[in-house]
Amino acid sequence: MGVLTRRAWAVTGVLALSFGVAACGSDSEGSGGTIELKIAANAISGGKNAEEADWIENWVIPHFEEAEADRGVDVKVTFEPSGVDDEQFKSRLALDLQSGSGPDIMSLDGIWLGEFAEAGYIKPLSETSPDFESWDGWDQIPEAVQQLAAFDGDLYGIPWGTDGRVLFYNKNLFEQAGLPTDWQPTSWQDILDAGEALGSLDGVTPIQLNAGTAMGEATTMQGILPLLAGTGEEISSDGSWTGASDGMEQALGLYEDIYGGGLGDPQLQQETQGRDKSFQEFAENKIGILAEGDYFWRSVVNPDNGVAPMEDRDEAVGYALIPAAQPGQGVNGQDFVSMSGGSVRTLNAASDHLDLAWDLLTFMNSAEAVTASVADTPKITARTDVNEQVLADDPMLTFINEQVLPITIFRPADSLYPQVSTLLQEATAAVVDGDSPSQAAEDYQDGLEEVVGGADHVTS
Amino acid sequence: MPTTSPPDAGLAPRGAGGQAGAAPRPARDRDAAGLGRPRAAAFVTPALLLIAAFLVFPALWTIYLGLTDYRLTGLAAADPQMVGLDNFTDALKDDSFSHSLGLTLQFVVGSAVIGQAGLGFLIAWVMRNRRGALRRLVEALVLTAWILPSSVIAFLWIALLDRDDGTLNAALHTPGTAWLLEHPMLSIIVFNIWRGTAFSMMLYAAALGNVPPSHLETARLAGASGWQQLRDVVFPRIRGHILTNLLLISLWTFNDFTPFLLTSGGPEDKTEVMPVFIYKLALSNGELGFGAAISVLMLLINLVIAVVYMTLLRRRKEDAPA
């Protein structure tokens, strides 16, 4: 008995002690009044968006901590890296935020704003940072780009930049197939014709047009939406969603032409790592034409820090505007179309140090910081002053800035969009799997009516 | 995967000794430890509190969530509404739910009931009289598959089945066969057989040790064939082990998430077994309420499986010779 009791006391003691230790560990204010801030982004050194991760770790954190120390504020900033699919990153963030924790500053895809705002995870800047309008950076960010960070008329953060979608093509393969190396298709038929020519090469997949749910938003953004725009329709207009319309069937029809006609690799669309694999195959001269955003140029085939680097990128990789189905058939009567998105840095509404987090956020978006972030790898930032300096050296990004951005369209800032996007991905998957475009469009419309709350909200 | 030993129910009672345990004890045995009611209560309270906090409460909470339209993001995350039994009726009408249930049954029957139990018994039977290096080697190999971490295993299998540089394609001279895409269910079933056979093998090996060699000897002398010996001597002896084993591996396999590491439920939804289906619904699509409702349905299915096996076990006990 005596032994038992003593043991019971010991166990109780250890338990109490460990609860006590755990309680100490969850305090965000470290010893000696140090304030801790955390930044999260889907970027990781040596992997996805490596340049952003390196910039945060090697530039932002030391410079900000130093500047705050000079003001007498003791801050410790940590970076929480990720290198996963965007959808997984979003789930993880949402789970963290739901439990009332999560990073103080986070990068969100612009289309997630609505969902996160409605859930109360992020709040308008006017609530979290009452004097946000006095930040001098707003003058440098064009109105259209600011809209990336807006939902229901309120700004929720600072946009980081924007991008554009084009057709990348492998000039080595084009030369072998007897195609011009300064290629610019003017209709979908031109793309299919080039695909036929590339098909004569051994071991080459002519066209990679993202499809299926495994590719996630990359299917919607680089696949079905630019095609839909090429038929003169948008996914949502005047508060109504596009269902099984003529344009939708026509866009899905191009998927049938490519994947049913042996011009694409259907299995690559289903593989879990299909998108990464398509990058790898393009870099190994196994894919002829690939629709992607300028991310592909900056972070994938970039010989310095890309995930599938190509030593001869500047000579071997060509880029062309995405044509409308027929000249003049695109949205607004355009000959060429594109889609744009962009990420936004926002504050966690549950952060304990909103003031300091806003300081850090503006610091990260200062001209100096933004310039440092694009020092090695130019990209289109939100700031006009920085763009003027950094884009000039890179012909590809100049092309995006001057030729693509004027004709591009954005996805709707609607909290239902991500669910509609999944339905679109499923429709493309069905066509790649052998369904007829009209059947896939019909199934899509059924799902759409369920998601958006009835046929009244759908145009077809 | 749990590593608990099988409960007593599986150990075949020898004669009447096993039965006595179930009979009511005499009064003087009721307080064997001499603690008294209050002290005994004090001892079990912490355990009961832990069970309440980590088992009962989450289960009730899941049922509650299943009655709401709670979502991971959006308006319903901030202010979930009660929707009654809508989630449950929607789930039962939903094609993807029945699709997923069908896949799960294929997975359980194919990989656990037929695959693991069958292969595990075969190995145990073949190895029953062997000693020495060969037996140790076989057991070590089978056990290795069981004890390695799932993430490591998944990586190895992806490399094995890869379309371009996969080991299997190299071995079979079938370049370009995407096993995980062309035969997705078969792939994860074979994977799970390989992964989980060890448990059945060990359990059957122990059970076969319980079959008295003299009985087998007698049967052989009476001219029984190998199959007749199995049917009439071995199986009746180890029937309890078989049922316990099937119960455990069916439940584990039903709730197994590891296929996700190989296929993520794909291509499209062709390997979306129930746990993967719920994961995708609740976390990828953010439909926490609907996902919770399906979790409850899954719990009920688990209960049905357990009850079926338990009934069989009880009947065996009643049938057992006194």
From TrEMBL, chain A:
Residues 1-23 form the signal peptide. It comes from the Bacteria. Keywords: Signal. The keyword Metal-binding does not apply. The lineage of its organism: Bacteria, Bacillati, Actinomycetota, Actinomycetes, Kitasatosporales. It holds the Pfam family SBP_bac_1. The keyword Signal applies. It comes from Streptomyces hoynatensis. This is Extracellular solute-binding protein.
